């Protein structure tokens, strides 16, 4: 496994007395640390602007010309520097009015002179750990965005390749539907109506997928979505076998959300529940609970269930389980489901008992 070199932690020391800077530098030296120094407020501001990777500023409060409070205030007003952590180093008394002024200007902590070596080192170590955690989180978000873009490109290719043959199939079905033998047989006429309706709906979905991959998140339409109607329509269009019954548990909400994304989530879960159900009388129940900012949905089935060791693995890209003759999935569907939910701040999980069935849960934001 590739080992990543730890990111450097850069600390800026600001004090108008050179001896204080030397002492503080010696105190804070360590592996993967870079120490920068400034002897005035103006020099500190110039140093910050020249280095975009400063993780912590140790800022003396009492300095001529520009004190530490003013330096912190100016840093706070600049979008590029407002998130840098600041520890004020001060010899003035610690009365509440002085402490509060420091926090108002952007300080996150205080150290009093004369500095205690152990306390100073411990506090700086805490801020270093926080900085590294934030950096790891940013890297994870960047990697997640790359995966999202890859999946969007995959969706575009699949949707584009499906659209042409599907359009041809619709044209052929329309011609067949005009045949006198179809028109004179009420049952066949009704079946053709259902098939044409389903294929036209699929065409609309593919067109929406193509539109989705061309737009940024900000451009995607947010609309009022009646989840009960959405689930009812999907349940019919997925053509479940006669032995599988789909029902809703209670009233489903009306949300302000992206309809296509929510439709993709439910279609994925319901399709899987139909495809892998191994019972003579299959039952799929869709319901949920209002959790305030989010709505907790579930799709429950009485199918084969998932072994405990697999309940996390099934959400990973290209992970496939043995479905005992039901056919392997692509290993993509549940990963897309997970990404779509997490993309807007929700989360997914599954509870399952082998042989008895599974319940897939997800949190979906109610309003944008």
From TrEMBL:
Checking SUPFAM superfamilies in the record gives: ATPase domain of HSP90 chaperone/DNA topoisomerase II/histidine kinase, CheY-like, Homodimeric domain of signal transducing histidine kinase
GO CC annotations?
A: plasma membrane
Q: What residue stretches are annotated with the Response regulatory domain?
A: 10-128
Q: Which reaction is catalysed here?
A: ATP + protein L-histidine = ADP + protein N-phospho-L-histidine
Listed EC numbers? 2.7.13.3
Q: Which residues form the signal peptide?
A: none
Domain (Histidine kinase): give its ranges: 157-368
Query: Per its UniProt record, what CDD domains does this chain match?
Result: HisKA
Keywords assigned by UniProt?
A: Kinase, Phosphoprotein, Transferase
Q: Which GO terms describe its molecular function?
A: histidine phosphotransfer kinase activity; phosphorelay sensor kinase activity
Which sequence positions carry the modification called 4-aspartylphosphate? 60
Q: What is this protein called?
A: histidine kinase
The organism encoding this protein is Chitinophaga arvensicola
Cross-referenced Pfam families: HATPase_c, HisKA, Response_reg
């Amino acid at each position: 496994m590739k080992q990543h070199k730890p990111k450097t932690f850069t600390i800026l020391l600001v004090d108008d007395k050179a001896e204080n800077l030397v002492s503080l530098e010696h105190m804070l030296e360590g592996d993967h640390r870079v120490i920068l120094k400034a002897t005035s407020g103006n020099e500190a501001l110039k140093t910050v602007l020249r280095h975009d990777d400063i993780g912590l500023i140790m800022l003396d409060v009492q300095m001529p010309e520009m004190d530490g409070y003013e330096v912190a205030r100016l840093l706070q007003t600049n979008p590029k520097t407002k998130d840098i952590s600041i520890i004020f180093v001060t010899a003035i008394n610690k009365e509440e009015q002085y402490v509060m002024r420091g926090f108002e200007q952007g300080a996150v902590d205080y150290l009093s002179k004369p500095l205690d070596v152990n306390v100073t080192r411990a506090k700086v170590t805490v801020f270093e750990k926080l900085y590294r955690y934030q950096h790891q989180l940013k890297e994870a978000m960047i990697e997640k965005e790359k995966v999202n873009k890859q999946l969007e490109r995959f969706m575009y290719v699949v949707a584009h390749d499906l659209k042409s043959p599907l359009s041809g199939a619709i044209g052929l079905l329309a011609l067949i539907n005009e045949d006198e033998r179809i028109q004179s047989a009420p049952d066949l006429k009704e079946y053709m109506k259902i098939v044409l309706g389903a294929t036209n709906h699929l065409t609309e979905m593919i067109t929406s997928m193509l539109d989705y991959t061309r737009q940024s998140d900000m451009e995607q339409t947010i609309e009022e979505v009646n989840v009960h109607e959405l689930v009812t329509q999907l349940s019919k269009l997925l053509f479940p076998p006669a032995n599988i019954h789909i029902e809703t548990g209670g009233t489903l909400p009306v949300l302000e959300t992206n309809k296509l994304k929510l439709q993709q989530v439910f279609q994925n879960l319901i399709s899987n529940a139909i495809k892998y159900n191994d019972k003579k009388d299959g039952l799929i129940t869709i319901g949920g609970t209002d959790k305030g900012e989010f709505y907790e949905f579930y799709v429950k089935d009485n199918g084969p269930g998932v072994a405990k060791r697999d309940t996390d693995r099934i959400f990973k890209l290209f992970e496939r389980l043995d479905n005992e003759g039901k056919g392997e999935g692509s290993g993509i569907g549940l990963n897309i489901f997970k990404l779509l939910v997490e993309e807007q701040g929700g989360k997914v999980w599954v509870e399952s008992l082998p042989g008895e069935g599974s319940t897939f849960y997800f949190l979906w934001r109610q309003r944008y």
